[in-house]
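hey can u check if this looks right to u? its 170 residues, i copy pasted from the old doc so theres a chance i mangled smth
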Amino acid sequence: MHNVVLRVALLGIALLLVGSGPASAHASLVGSDPEDGASLPTSPSTFAFTFNENVGNPAYVSVTAPNGSKVDVSAVRAVDNRVTATVADAGQKGRYTVAYRVVSADGHPVEGTIRYSTTTGRTVKQVDPPEEETFIHRHSAHLFWGILAAAAAIALLLAPLRRRDDTRNT
């Protein structure tokens, strides 16, 4: 009996740690204008992102210039499966980073980045934006406390069984 309970508890912990895979129902980027990695003679005045399903508002677009400064973005609109935005010209030569965040049809936020480079403009020192955090890094404290709570719950559930086994052995 004790071995069966222990095996069930270990299986429960394993299932908690493994969790479920990523949801496939979220929108994903299928194209952008300019394309990710494009090299352009000048900075574009508009951006367009195309997703595999309709997205809703609010939609956000943020552009970082080669020197690390933010570029003015206006008129961000999400219509059906496209998000468009108007962008000011930073006038800098180098690599730009464009971050987007939209709401998927199922209500979950979807975010990502594309990069493009311009070959004209004033030369500045390239400042790369910080690396994006992964889901695990952003939620490591939540995962730690969740695993700790699951372990405590299992210990509390098994404690009466352990006491019962101890009283039978005496």
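The first strand starts at residue 29 and ends at 33.
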